[in-house]
Specification:
This protein is 35% helix and 3% strand. It is globular. Helix 12 (265-276) crosses helix 14. The protein has 2 domains: 36-51 and 248-399, Cytochrome c-like domain (Cytochrome Bc1 Complex, Chain D, domain 2); 54-244, Cytochrome c-like domain (Cytochrome Bc1 Complex, Chain D, domain 2), CATH 1.10.760.10. With 410 residues, the chain is mostly helical. The protein has a two-stranded antiparallel ribbon. It has a two-stranded antiparallel sheet with strand order 2-3.
């Protein structure tokens, strides 16, 4: 049996080894890029620019089964903002997917937050809506979404942004819904959301002569004989077409199109980090996310993961025993309880806090640090995190008005 002094010596040697381990391993030296090389690499990794014209929009989003035209877009927009789409006429799609700066569209959210009946966890610091009512975020910025009569999501899931969602292959946290029409149906009929049955909604809208006229005008060339113009299917189609126009362009798109001055040097270094560290492996496509369903977290950083040097940084001994690196309010575990989640869209991500499926993290820097440690296995330095955040800021953009150059109504 080893003496106490021997144990102390062994422990001292082991700890010293851990402390000097980063110095025994060279830092990773990543390639430096010219602006044109950086742009080409970003494109090669699937990071593409958002269309800047109606013609380009049609190339990527038009569907022969639900063709895009200006009249259908206008009808879809009217439906999107209409509270008639909920059982008690209090909630519209725009209630949870905020894209308007009109304070009237946010009353239901404010009333829910200030109500005495609202659970305390809806009033916590992670709810960002109060300070960001004017943001066109495409979400309500609550840690958990609310719906009919202020009901909270049963799994404590927060609302995904509607902006750029038409570019995603997967539309829900578990990735089970893959089309806009499916998601629209789910949102309208779910008891915790708008809570109105399809047939009841159609009956309600048929009491509005303008809707009857508008649906006939929009769908007269698309429906078969003896079919109803104003149907639940056509409600879904009109809203889906409108959602396809909710794309945001930013300074990053300008960079991808050749403007080297549109983003800063720090943002360019952040883009290099974003690609070299592996972030772009999942956060890809025009939407910079939403293209796959991935396990989260991949690493718990208990045991051997903490002993590995990352970019020359010292090992971190923080042990996390929970399923997630934050409190999992609601207990949601993703697809079939396997911890597989839809990869979030990062466009406008700096405007869509709080982060992760249950809104547990309200700061973008903390979210980046968590993803570095628990998803790609890196202890990112403060500088690296700052640079990545600067890149993410270049994804902030406004909704494109595609109607300006749409000369032909199909």
């Amino acid at each position: 049996m080893k003496s106490f002094s021997q144990v102390i010596i062994i422990a001292f040697i082991f700890i010293s080894f851990l402390l000097f381990l980063p110095n025994l391993t060279k830092e990773r030296n990543f390639k430096t890029y010219t602006d044109s090389q950086l742009r080409a690499t970003a494109n090669a990794k699937g990071l593409k620019a958002i269309p800047n014209s109606y013609e380009e929009l049609l190339k990527i989003s038009d569907d022969e089964n639900n063709p895009i035209n200006l009249k259908k877009i206008a009808l879809g927009k009217e439906l999107f903002f209409d509270t008639k789409l909920s059982l008690d006429d209090t909630i519209s799609c725009a209630t949870c997917h905020m894209i308007s700066k009109n304070s009237d569209d946010k009353k239901i959210i404010l009333n829910a937050i200030t109500s005495k009946k609202t659970p305390n966890d809806l009033k916590d610091a992670n709810n960002c809506v109060i300070c960001h009512l004017s943001d066109e975020s495409g979400t309500d910025r609550l840690s958990t979404s609310i719906g009919y009569k202020g009901a909270t999501n049963p799994h404590h899931l927060n609302t995904m942004t509607i902006l750029n969602s038409s570019l995603a292959k997967y539309l829900t946290w578990n990735g089970e819904i893959k089309t806009l029409e499916q998601q629209i149906s789910n949102s309208i009929q779910a008891p915790s959301k708008m809570n109105i049955k399809a047939d009841d909604l159609v009956k309600k809208l048929k009491n509005d002569k303008k809707y009857i006229s508008d649906f006939k005008e929009v769908f007269k060339d698309e429906i078969k004989e003896n079919q109803d113009y104003l149907s639940f299917e056509n409600i879904q189609k009109a809203i889906a077409v409108y959602v396809k126009t909710l794309l945001t362009r930013s300074s990053f798109d300008e960079f991808l199109e050749g403007n080297n001055e549109s983003i800063s040097k720090d943002a360019k270094r952040g883009l290099v980090n974003f690609m070299n560290f592996g972030c772009s492996g999942c956060h890809t496509g025009m939407s910079v996310g939403g293209q796959s369903v991935q396990r989260f977290p991949l690493r718990h950083f208990a045991g051997i993961h903490d002993l590995r040097p990352n970019l020359g940084s010292p090992p971190d001994f923080k042990i996390i025993d929970e399923t997630f690196p934050f409190e999992n309010k609601g207990g949601y575990l993703g697809r079939s309880d396997t911890q597989f989640f839809r990869v979030p869209i990062l466009r406008n991500v700096t405007k869509t806090s709080p982060y992760f499926h249950n809104g547990a993290v309200d700061k973008i820097r903390e979210a980046v640090e968590i993803m570095g440690r628990h998803q790609v296995g890196l202890n990112l330095s403060d500088q690296q995190i700052d640079e990545i955040v600067e890149f993410l800021k270049t994804l902030e953009g406004n909704v494109v008005d595609y109607s300006k150059d749409a000369k032909v109504i199909k």
